[in-house]
Write a structure and sequence with these properties.
CATH superfamily of chain A: Cytochrome-c3 Hydrogenase, chain B
CATH topology of chain B: Beta Polymerase, domain 2
CATH architecture of chain A: Orthogonal Bundle
Number of domains of chain A: 1
Number of strands of chain A: 8
Oligomer: heterodimer
Number of strands of chain B: 7
CATH architecture of chain B: 2-Layer Sandwich
Distance between the termini of chain A: 28 Å
Order of helices and strands of chain A: HEEEHHHHHEEHHHHHHHHEEEHHHH
Shape of chain B: elongated
Structural class of chain A: mainly alpha
Number of helices of chain A: 18
Number of helices of chain B: 4
Largest interface: A-B, 44 and 38 residues
CATH superfamily of chain B: NADH:ubiquinone oxidoreductase Nqo5 subunit
Radius of gyration of chain A: 23 Å
Radius of gyration of chain B: 20 Å
Strand content of chain B: 25-35%
Strand order of the largest sheet of chain A: 1-2-3
Shape of chain A: globular
C-alpha cells in the first residue's frame, strides 16, 4: 500500500495567499460530504476569522468516465448514459443527445414528437428548478420550502413515469423521435399540473420573495457582472440574472421553440437574489410554453420513418421481413454515421448544454464531449466568494445550482 | 453557413492563414498552434465573448498530428458560433494557454491535461482536475484501455478483494 503523503501549506503555495504560509489565516476543508455542497464538492477555504480569503474548489469525486464509456457503445446504446450526467435534467440530456445525433446523420423528426419533447423538457426544467429552490432555501434554513418543492416535483415525475416507465432515468427521447407515443392519461395529467402549479409558485413567492431573512441572506451577495459571466463561460439563469438576455431557446431555436410565445426573464443585479427571481420567472414561463405546446399538439407518428437509423415498431416486426432485418441490424451493429464533426447545444435548466460529436464513419461515436453548464458555472465560484462570510458562501453555492454529476461527468 | 460570419472568416483566413471548412451548417477553422493565442484575442475583440467548449480528439495511431484541440466559440452580440481546430503532434503535445483571455479555459485546459496529456504552456495551475492527483495515464486517449471492475461472488470474493485497488486498512 502506498504511503499517504501529507500535504503541507508549501504544496499549495500557488493557490493560497502569503498570509496562509505565515500561519495568519486558517485552511479549512468544506466537503466533500457536506449538506450544503449539493453533492460531493470539496472546497478548500482559506479563512481569516469568518471571512473567506480564498476558495479553491476540488472536483472529480463523481467522475464516472461517461465520455469514454460512450465511445465504446453504439449511438443507440450510448444514450442511456446521458441520463446519468445531469440527474436533475434527464429529459433535457436525452434531448441534447438526440438533437446531436440527428444533426450528425441529418435525420428528420415528426411534428408530434417535437411538441412532446418541448412539453417534457419544460416540465423537467420546472422540476429541476423546484429541486434548486427547495435545496437552496433549505441552505438558508427555510425547511418547509424543501418539503413543498419535493411535493410538487412528484407530480412531474409521475408524468415522466407515465410516459417512459421511469421517474428519473427516462431515455424517452431517442434520436429520430420518441420511444413511443404518450399514453392517453398524459394530457389530463399535464393539464392538472398547469392548473395547480401557478398558484403554488405564488405560495413560494409569498414565503420567500419579501421575506426579510431571505433578503438579508441573498441581496447583494455573490455579485457577477455580465462581462465577468461571459469571461467565465457562465450561461443560463446566472447569466440572465446579470443582465444578458441570452437563451438558446430564443436565440438559436431548436425543436420548434420559435413557435411559442415566452419571455426570457433578466435582472440587472447579478446577485443571489436576482438569480432566485430569474429562476422563479423561468418556472412560470416554462408552464406557459407547456400550455401552448399542449393546446396545439399535432397528431401523427412520433418516430421518423427513416428505417436506416430508427428501429421499426414492435407491431411491424411480426408482419414485415424488412422491418425484422432493420430491427436486427440496428440493435446488433447499429447505424454508421458519415465522417464528420458537429457541435449542437440546448438550453438546460443550468445553461448551455452542448455536445461535440465526432464520427469516423463507424457505428460508435469516435469522440463525444459534453459541454456541461455546471462545470463552467462552478468555475466562477472563487471569484464570487472573495471576502464573503462562510454563511454567505453557502447561499452562493446554492445560487449556482450545480449538479455534481454534471460537473464531473 | 450564416452570412454574417463571412467577413469574420475572411479576416481570420488572411491574418492567420486558417483553412475554412463546413459540415452540417457548422463552420470550422483549422489553425496552427502558435497562432491560437493571437486568434483567440482577435476573436474576442470581434465579439466572440464566450468560450463554449474546449476539448480534444485523439486520432491514435496517427502521429502527425495525433490530436486535434477544439475551441468552440460563441458570439452573443452577433449570435454566431465558430469552431477552431488546432492539430497537435503526439510526441510531447503542448499548446500555449488561453486562460488569460477566456478565464473558463483554466479548468478546461486542466481537464485536457488530465484526460489527454496535452500540456498548456503558461497555465497558472496545471494539475489534474477530474482524476485523482496520483493517477497514471490519460484516460481519454485512444490507447488507454476501457477498464472494468471484476464482479465479486461469494466463492471468489476474498480472492478478488486482495487485488482490488482501493484503500484497505
Amino acid at each position: 500500500m502506498p504511503d499517504i503523503q501529507e500535504i503541507t501549506v508549501q504544496d499549495l503555495k500557488h493557490l493560497v495567499s502569503e498570509r496562509a504560509i505565515q500561519g495568519e489565516t486558517v485552511l479549512l476543508n468544506m466537503g466533500p460530504q457536506h449538506p450544503s455542497t449539493h453533492g460531493v464538492l470539496r472546497l478548500l477555504l482559506e479563512l481569516d476569522g469568518e471571512t473567506v480569503v480564498n476558495c479553491i474548489p476540488d472536483i472529480g469525486f463523481l467522475h464516472t468516465g461517461i465520455e469514454k464509456n460512450m465511445e465504446a457503445k453504439t449511438y443507440a446504446k450510448a444514450e442511456v448514459m446521458s441520463d446519468r450526467l445531469d440527474y436533475m435534467n434527464t429529459v433535457g440530456n436525452n434531448l441534447a443527445y438526440a438533437l446531436a445525433v440527428e444533426k450528425l446523420v441529418d435525420l428528420d423528426v415528426p411534428a408530434r414528437a417535437q411538441s412532446i419533447r418541448v412539453i417534457l423538457a419544460e416540465l423537467q426544467r420546472f422540476a429541476s428548478h423546484l429541486v434548486w429552490l427547495g435545496t437552496s432555501a433549505l441552505d438558508l434554513a427555510a425547511r418547509s420550502m424543501f418539503l413543498y418543492c419535493f411535493r410538487e416535483r412528484e407530480y412531474i415525475l409521475d408524468v415522466m413515469e407515465m410516459c417512459s416507465g421511469q421517474r428519473m432515468m427516462t431515455t424517452y427521447i431517442r434520436p429520430g423521435g420518441l420511444w413511443r407515443d404518450v399514453p392517453v392519461e398524459f394530457e389530463a395529467a399535464v393539464r392538472d399540473i398547469l392548473k395547480k402549479f401557478p398558484k403554488r409558485i405564488d405560495e413560494y413567492e409569498a414565503l420567500l420573495t419579501r421575506n426579510p431573512l431571505m433578503l438579508d441572506r441573498t441581496y447583494g451577495i455573490g455579485k457577477l457582472t455580465g462581462e465577468e459571466c461571459l469571461n467565465f463561460g457562465v450561461t443560463g439563469p446566472m447569466l440572465r440574472a446579470s443582465g444578458i438576455a441570452w437563451d438558446l431557446r430564443k436565440d438559436r431555436p431548436y425543436c420548434g421553440y420559435e413557435q411559442y410565445d415566452f419571455k426570457v426573464p433578466t435582472r440587472a443585479e447579478g446577485d443571489v437574489y436576482a438569480r432566485y427571481l430569474v429562476r422563479l420567472e423561468e418556472m412560470r414561463q416554462a408552464l406557459k410554453i407547456v400550455q401552448q405546446a399542449l393546446d396545439k399538439l399535432p397528431l401523427g407518428p412520433v418516430r421518423s420513418q427513416n428505417r436506416k437509423y430508427v428501429p421499426p415498431r414492435r407491431s411491424e416486426i411480426g408482419v414485415s421481413m424488412e422491418a425484422l432485418i432493420h430491427h436486427f441490424k440496428l440493435w446488433t451493429e447499429g447505424f454508421a454515421a458519415s465522417k464528420g464533426a458537429i457541435y449542437s447545444a440546448v438550453e438546460s435548466p443550468r445553461g448551455e448544454l452542448g455536445i461535440y460529436l465526432e464520427s469516423d464513419g463507424g457505428p460508435k461515436p469516435y469522440r463525444i464531449h459534453w459541454r456541461t453548464p455546471s462545470f463552467d458555472n462552478l468555475q466562477s465560484l472563487p471569484a464570487m466568494s472573495k471576502g464573503v462570510l462562510v454563511a454567505d458562501l453557502v447561499a452562493i453555492i446554492g445560487s449556482v445550482d450545480i449538479v455534481l454529476g454534471d460537473v464531473d461527468r | 453557413m450564416e452570412m454574417k460570419i463571412q467577413p469574420i472568416l475572411e479576416k481570420l483566413e488572411k491574418e492567420f492563414g486558417a483553412a475554412v471548412s463546413e459540415y452540417r451548417g457548422d463552420t470550422s477553422l483549422v489553425l496552427t498552434g502558435e497562432k491560437i493565442v493571437a486568434a483567440c484575442q482577435r476573436l474576442q475583440n470581434l465579439g466572440f465573448e464566450l468560450l463554449s467548449a474546449l476539448t480534444a480528439v485523439d486520432y491514435w495511431p496517427e502521429e502527425k498530428p495525433r490530436f486535434h484541440v477544439i475551441y468552440q466559440m460563441t458570439s452573443i452580440s452577433l449570435n454566431l458560433v465558430l469552431t477552431l481546430r488546432v492539430p497537435v503532434p503526439g510526441i510531447n503535445p503542448s499548446l500555449p494557454t488561453i486562460s488569460h483571455i477566456y478565464r473558463n479555459a483554466n479548468w478546461r485546459e486542466r481537464e485536457l491535461w488530465d484526460m489527454f496529456g496535452i500540456k498548456f504552456l503558461g497555465h497558472p495551475d496545471l494539475r489534474r482536475i477530474l482524476m485523482p492527483a496520483d493517477w497514471e495515464g490519460h484516460p481519454l486517449r485512444k490507447d488507454y484501455p476501457l477498464g472494468y471492475e471484476e464482479p465479486q461472488f461469494t466463492f471468489n470474493y476474498e480472492e478478488i478483494n486482495l487485488r482490488k485497488p482501493y484503500a484497505k486498512e
